[in-house]
Specification:
This protein is an alpha/beta fold. It is built from seven helices and ten strands. 30% of the residues lie in helices and 16% in strands. Bound molecules: 2-phosphoglycolic acid (PGA).
Length: 246
């Protein structure tokens, strides 16, 4: 490699969707077995579900692991089934038998959410940073709730959801009006600080975003294009999500 070559390009593994769980779980377990106090960053949404199901099916000892969520909605009452605290309890904590104290999320009920965001960023740093961050991609190219326009070096902060993201997440709520408008999200800079990134993308709705993220310019217009800056990114994409990639 030339000395002035940039970071290694993301590695795209084209797989049928039914193989996502096993391949992603192999990657996670590789990190767990090579790290003494592993820190895993977890996403919510449909994309990571096959991974969590596979990890639960395999069983395992996760006592040494610390987990950090990417984001959390603001404005939902405590215990709301669509709060990410509850989603992670259903999809990760209970099925894997985790100690809930090892799974961290931003505090959406803090008196000052900006302060809660800063404290969350600090907590990740205090844990030694994230060894492996699991990611999905929004159809508008967002990563976590870093919507188009988010600075590539942004850190954990309060953000406003775009209408497109609220409509995409409408499927989890009875009405669009009940989808929150604000959140606390890790920043793109926070995500890029993780030592390794694993993004899962399935279905035709992700094809354009994935193409812009990997084949387009690095620009905050497409937050996921920040992946090109990282150097250790693995992407699992099914044929429909990868359809526009070269
Ligand atoms: P999904 O969402 O995993 O539910 O498709 C991903 C995202 O919007 O970041």
């Amino acid at each position: 490699m030339r000395a002035d070559a940039g970071p290694a390009a993301p590695a795209v593994l084209r797989l049928p969707g039914h193989e996502f769980g096993t391949v992603a779980a192999d990657l996670v377990q590789g990190v767990l077995s090579s790290t003494s106090r592993p820190v895993i960053g977890v996403a919510t949404g449909g994309s990571p579900s096959p991974l969590y199901r596979e990890l639960a099916a395999r069983g395992g000892d996760y006592r040494a692991v610390t987990w950090f969520a990417l984001d959390e909605y603001l404005g939902l009452p405590a215990g709301h089934p669509q709060s990410y605290a509850e989603v992670l309890r259903r999809e990760l904590i209970d099925p894997l038998g985790l100690d809930p104290r090892t799974v961290h999320l931003p505090d959406p009920h803090a008196a000052d959410p900006h302060d809660a965001a800063e404290r969350y960023e600090q907590r990740i740093a205090d844990a030694g940073g994230v060894d492996l961050q699991i990611l999905g991609i929004g159809r508008n190219g967002h990563l976590a709730f870093n919507e188009p326009g988010a600075a590539l070096d942004s850190r954990t902060r309060v953000e406003t959801l775009t209408e497109d993201t609220r409509r995409a997440n409408r499927r989890f709520f009875p009405t669009l009006a009940e989808v929150p408008t604000r959140c606390i999200t890790q920043g793109l800079g926070t995500i890029l600080s993780a030592r390794r990134l694993l993004l899962l993308a399935q279905g035709p709705a992700k094809a354009e975003a994935l193409h812009r993220a990997l084949a387009g310019p690095v620009t905050s217009d497409c937050p996921a294009s920040a992946l090109q800056l990282h150097g250790d990114v693995t992407i699992l994409a099914d044929a429909k999500a990868a359809a526009l990639l070269p």
